[in-house]
Every structure is written in structure tokens, then in C-alpha cells.
Design brief:
The protein is built from four helices and no strands. The protein is mainly alpha-helical. It has one domain. Helix 1 crosses helix 3, helix 2 packs antiparallel against helix 3 and helix 2 packs parallel to helix 4. The model has no long low-confidence stretch (mean pLDDT 89).
Amino acid sequence: MFTNAKRYAVKYTASTSRGPMMVPRDRIDSTMKWVEYSIDIHDMNKLLMSTKSLDEKFMLMKALEVADRKKLWHYRQENFNLSRASQILTHFMKYHA
């Protein structure tokens, strides 16, 4: 059974043998992906502070690095809407944090 730290590590650091999946930029909703990564980063930071296992801390730090990079990439895209993203994130954090 995977722990939450291992799930994030698989999600953000698992390599694919088939190579990266190419999706056109205009088909990606960068605002929603940015929100997803922001929520994951928030959760991973909470896990990082609560776990005592050094292996899990290392996995989480690697996953955090990848998630931060992806979040920044989506922020730079043309179809990113900061006001919409902040509204969604604020609403989520208000009711789920």
C-alpha cells in the first residue's frame, strides 16, 4: 500500500518508458493545472513537516521540485488567468484545508 508521500513521488517523479506525452498548449487549461499543482504543493509541504521518515522526506522534496517547476510553467502560459486561479484556490482552501 502506498503512503501519501509515495503517491506524490509516483505522480511527479515517475519516469515513462514511452517518452513524454505531447499535448498542444492550447488544449491544456493552465489555470486549472496551476490550481492542481498549488494544492498538491500545499499538501506535500504539510506531509513533509509531519513525516519522520527521511526516505519520505527525500521523495517529497524531489516531487516538490517538479511540482514547483510545472506550476511556474503553467503560470507563464497565455491561457493562464490569475484572478480565476486565485478564486478557485481560495475557495478550495476555505472548505478543504
